[in-house]
Amino acid sequence: MDTLVTLNFIGYAAVFAGGIVLGTLFGRNLASELASLVHSLESRVTALETALHLSGASAKTAPEPAASAVKSRAEATEQPAAAIETHAAAKSAGN
Q: In a 3-state reduction of DSSP, which class is residue 32?
């Protein structure tokens, strides 16, 4: 019985060692691919920042379209809210 337990632990150790080796090799490959991906993203962001800086655009002009979108969304939700309030008032007056 002790021999089977010992062989079982040896098997676990072999699988563990193989997993470490394969994980290291795969992790190194994955890390190099992620590094190249991050480098390409950084270069694109740098190019975009440079283009925005050279064109004179600033971060202050960016929120204007967002602000108008929020305002139109608020106006669109006010109409159903008013209709719900009117319906609730009419229903409570009818009771």
A: helix
> Are both 71 and 89 inside the same structural domain?
yes
Question: Running along the chain, 95 residues long, what does each successive block of 10 average in pLDDT?
Answer: 90 93 86 90 90 68 71 83 84 74
Closest CA to 48 of 35, 57, 37: 57
63 and 52 within one domain: no
- Of the chain, the end-to-end C-alpha distance in Å amounts to 83
* H helices present in 1-95, as ranges: 2-55, 63-94
State the Cα–Cα distance between residues 83 and 75, nearest whole angstrom.
13
Residues 71, 38 share a domain = no
Q: Is the pTM of this model over 0.70?
A: no
